[in-house]
Amino acid sequence: MKNKPLGSFLISTLIISGCSSTGTNQGLHTNSTQAELETRELVSIENELQGIKNRISKLEAKISVIKGKGDSVTLNDGWKRLKSWRKLEAEMDYESVERILGPAHRIDGGIAANWYYENGGRVTFYRGSVQRWEEPN
């Protein structure tokens, strides 16, 4: 009979230590899952950052090409000079106009679009090609 309480104690100890061990494993499993999620998120952020770096490099390369052409038009402010407006030609595309005049200050339309500039100049496009323009006053 004296061994019965000792046996019960040993069984209780084994059960408690088993639960404790299971809880520890679950804790490790939860930490492992959390670490995997954080790793995936970090990889996603790193990929997004690399994409942004690539886009910046491409834009810097375009700027270098524009500056390398020896054109007297400073990037983004060609709209200020009449000389720039006189470089426009019918059927030019959006990129060509933006390279010469810079980005419009306001754009209206869709298939038929008007680009407006602060100095009163306007370029009218139809299906992506210049149809006409009005030089600033």
Describe the structure.
By secondary structure, the protein is an alpha+beta fold. 57% of the residues lie in helices and 15% in strands. It contains 3 helices and 4 strands, in the order αααββββ. It has helices at 3-68, 82-85, 94-101; strands at 106-109, 112-116, 122-126, 129-134. The chain has a 4-stranded antiparallel sheet, with no helix packed on it. The longest helix is centred in the first third of the chain and has 66 residues, at 3-68. The radius of gyration is 34 Å and the shape is elongated. Mean pLDDT is 79; it is low at 19-24.
**Major beta sheet summary:** 4 strands, antiparallel
Distance between the termini: 112 Å
Residue fraction in strands: 5-15%
SSE order, one letter for each helix or strand: HHHEEEE
Shape: elongated
The total of helices stands at: 3
Beta strands, count: 4
Derived from helix and strand composition plus strand pairing, the structural class reads alpha+beta
Please mark out the parts with pLDDT under 50 across 5 or more consecutive residues, or reply none.
19-24
Bin the helical content.
55-70%
Mean pLDDT: 79
> What gyration radius follows from the Cα positions, in whole Å?
34 Å
Question: Could you list some keywords that capture this structure?
Answer:
single chain; 137 residues; alpha+beta; four-stranded antiparallel beta sheet
In short:
With 137 residues, this protein is an alpha+beta fold. The chain has three helices and four strands.
SSE layout:
Layout: H1 3-68, H2 82-85, H3 94-101, E1 106-109, E2 112-116, E3 122-126, E4 129-134
Antiparallel strand pairs: 1-2, 2-3, 3-4
